[in-house]
Specification:
It is a single chain. The protein is of the alpha+beta class and about 700 residues long. It is built from 18 helices and 22 strands. A hairpin with a 5-residue loop joins strand 4 and strand 5. The radius of gyration is 31 Å and the shape is globular. It starts with a strand and ends in an 11-residue tail after the last helix. InterPro entries: HD, HD-Zip_III, Homeodomain-like_sf, START-like_dom_sf, START_lipid-bd_dom. This is Homeobox-leucine zipper protein ATHB-9-like.
Length: about 700
């Protein structure tokens, strides 16, 4: 039967101003569906062409076909919206389950505190003299007390593993640690999850729990690969694997962690890692340090490291109804703050920094892979997400290698020029260039090694986000185009002469081309195109475009306690997946001030550049903030140019430090009114504006008397 006209009451496909509708045959619906698959919104000409080419549609009016496509698009939209709402509902259900568990944990904590309060009152009333109060000791040490009560089992790995499991579970889902929710991390269907940090416990600790659309064993595989998500992890070496009778495994692991700055030593952990399944179907991986008394070594394996302690930590993965997993992650460490300078100790005593660098980073990494696996993340540059992640990891790893300069990687110090502000290290080891970080094609025709110039400086009252954004967006104000050209020459077969560092820099412009960003926009991978302008014959060799692969992270204003960094490496136009990278850059680490944890108002207050100029009154915490800025630049050299490259690198880093100090003066918030036009900060800004104007127009903005 062909199309029939019937009454409106029975029609799912109605015209706008017609009292009739069309009932379509299966053949007609099939023909229309084929067209819809190719073009969901055909034009009037396309619909008329369809009627001419399809005989079974010849007795249907073009208006009715238009209505069919409108209704078909509406049904498709409703289907997608229904699927989206079902997904949101599953997330809300899982998040509700997490919140209910968190509420139960808090109720247990309240009951425990009420019991302790009553016990303390009883002791006060019954005490006849001065007594020693040990009631405030953390529940975390209960496992160690049990271990001391049973010295015969102290060296038994399985008993240590079971004890570690019990302590970890008490932290992940119980009250062994006094957790407080991290400011700015609110739970919700689109949030990363529930994030908490420790208060008044031994060492520093952080906890996070969230929902991901991956199966538990896949999540465990991702999280066990610590270097893939923890950017400060140098290596994880499994020294021994022991199966247990319950189907689990015990591993003896050595973990090496990069130092974040040149002012401190790296850390390492010697741990026992226990992986097993629980009776409810959950999978758990827990870990803790081994001491010399429990079978571990007496000290670090290398003099470049300081032995740190990992208290019971790990992750609990529970299967979720309807698919996916609920993850509980706990990190609890003691980084031995006594071995670092006092000015840096807040960096090693901050649970917030631990949460951002380890706990939250692990959860974000799993969520990123889950959304890439489901196809929710689309990249328009033709690169697979795994390739782009590898680029980010290689940039971070290369920068960390330069900052730390480990002797077993081939780095050795170079004699200085008498000043100690800049450290110069060289690496002539062939193993450095044979690894995956640099590739076999590195230094094609020249180059006996790599030279690194690095320094760290302490800045006062400088907003870290404003500083890192300025370095990213205004490269011409601190970089030297000739030095950039020399760095890019390492990718070409033709050697390039060592440039003289220019005080005024070289006129250039930059265009930032985005490649990828993480889900919460806390990290950006991009290509920077640098274009130079030659104003003299000797500068003609510099007036060519160059490209940098750049990673910018930590620029999210909502992140609390995190560090920011800008790392870049020269690349050529081909930009192959295995392109060699020699990263340089900056790392900004805020040093957290000791404040009252109950003072949420001051802890959550933020500042931007505009508010720093409006003369508003600042609190002591805001006006006494400090940060550590670490700078590292790497250059290639050959046997004949090593000393010249060292001189150039040392002077270049000093110039960069001077530029940053001028920038810091300009962006430092000051109480009171705005600076007068004759202030050094205002004159610095005027010089930047006039120089940029002259570079782009060729004219002097103020004529001949530019100084006044």
């Amino acid at each position: 039967m062909m199309a029939h006209s019937m009454d409106d009451r029975d029609s799912p496909d109605k015209g706008f101003d017609s009292g009739k509708y069309v009932r379509y045959t299966p053949e007609q619906v099939e023909a229309l569906e084929r067209v819809y698959a190719e073009c969901p919104k055909p034009s009037s000409l396309r619909r008329q062409q369809l009627i001419r080419e399809c005989p079974i549609l010849c007795n249907i009016e073009p208006r009715q076909i238009k209505v069919w496509f409108q209704n078909r698009r509406c049904r498709e939209k409703q289907r997608k919206e229904s699927a989206r709402l079902q997904t949101v509902n599953r997330k809300l259900s899982a998040m509700n389950k997490l919140l209910m568990e968190e509420n139960d944990r808090l109720q247990k904590q309240v009951s425990h505190l009420v019991y302790e309060n009553g016990f303390m009152k009883h002791r006060i009333h019954t005490a006849s003299g001065t007594t020693t109060d040990n009631s405030c000791e953390s529940v975390v040490v209960s496992g160690q007390q049990r271990q001391q009560q049973n010295p015969t089992h102290q060296h038994h790995l399985l008993s240590i593993a079971e004890e570690t499991l019990a302590e970890f579970l008490s932290k992940a889902t119980g009250t062994a640690v006094d957790w407080v929710q991290m400011i700015g991390m609110k739970p919700g269907p689109d949030s990363i999850g529930i994030v908490a940090v420790s208060r008044n416990c031994s060492g520093i600790a952080a906890r996070a729990c969230g929902l991901v659309s991956l199966e538990p064993m896949k999540v465990a595989e991702i999280l066990k690969d610590r270097p893939s998500w923890f950017r400060d992890c140098r290596c994880v070496e499994t020294l021994n694997v022991i199966p247990t009778g319950s189907g689990g495994t015990i591993e003896l692991v050595n973990i090496q962690i990069y130092a974040p700055t040149t002012l401190a030593a790296a850390r390492d952990f010697w741990t026992l890692r226990y992986s097993t399944s629980l009776e409810d179907g959950s999978y758990v991986v827990c870990e803790r340090s081994l001491t010399s008394a429990t079978g571990g070594p007496n000290g670090p394996l290398s003099s470049s490291f300081v032995r740190a302690k990992m208290l019971s930590s790990g992750f609990l993965i529970r299967p979720c109804d309807g698919g996916g997993s609920i993850i509980h992650i706990v990190d609890h460490v003691d980084l031995d703050v006594s071995s670092v300078p006092e000015v840096l100790r807040p960096l090693y005593e901050s649970s917030k920094i631990l949460a951002q660098k380890m706990t939250v980073a692990a959860l974000r990494h799993v969520r990123q892979i889950a959304q890439e696996t489901s196809g929710e993340v689309q990249y328009s540059v033709g690169r697979q997400p795994a390739v782009l992640r590898t680029f980010s990891q290689r940039l971070c790893r290369g920068f960390n290698d330069a900052v730390n300069g480990f002797a077993d990687d081939g780095w050795s110090p170079m004699s200085s020029d008498g000043a100690e502000d800049i450290t110069i290290m060289i690496n002539s080891s062939s193993a450095k260039f044979a690894g995956s970080q640099y590739g076999s094609s590195f230094l094609p025709s020249f180059g006996s090694g790599v030279l690194c110039a690095k320094a760290s400086m302490l800045l006062q009252n400088v907003p870290p986000l404003v500083l890192i954004r300025f370095l990213r967006e205004h490269r011409a104000e601190w970089a030297d185009y000739g030095v950039d050209a020399y760095s890019a020459a390492s990718l070409r077969a033709t050697p390039f002469a060592v440039p003289c560092v220019r005080t005024g820099g070289f006129p250039s412009n930059q265009v930032i081309l985005p490649l990828a960003q993480t889900l919460e926009h806390e990290e950006f991978l991009e290509v920077v195109r640098l274009g130079g302008h030659a104003y003299s014959p000797e500068d003609m060799g510099l007036s060519r475009d160059m490209y940098l692969l750049q990673l910018c992270s930590g620029v999210d204003e909502n992140v609390v306690g995190g560090c920011a960094q800008l790392v870049f490496a020269p690349i050529d136009e081909s930009f192959a997946d295995d392109a060699p990278l020699l990263p340089s850059g900056f790392r900004v680490i805020p040093l957290e001030q000791k404040i009252n944890p109950n003072d949420h108002q001051s802890a959550s207050r933020t500042r931007d550049l505009a508010s720093s100029l409006d003369g508003s009154t600042k609190t002591d915490t805001e006006t006494n903030s400090r940060l550590v800025l670490t700078i590292a630049f790497q250059f290639t050299f050959d046997n004949h140019s090593r000393d010249n490259v060292a001189t150039m690198a040392r002077q270049y880093v000093r110039n960069v430090v001077g530029s940053i100090q001028r920038v810091a003066l300009a962006i430092t918030p000051r109480p009171g009114s705005m600076q007068l036009p004759t202030s050094p900060e205002a004159l610095t800004l005027v010089r930047w504006i006039t120089r940029s104007y002259s570079a782009h127009t060729g004219a002097d903005l103020f004529g001949t008397d530019s100084q006044s």
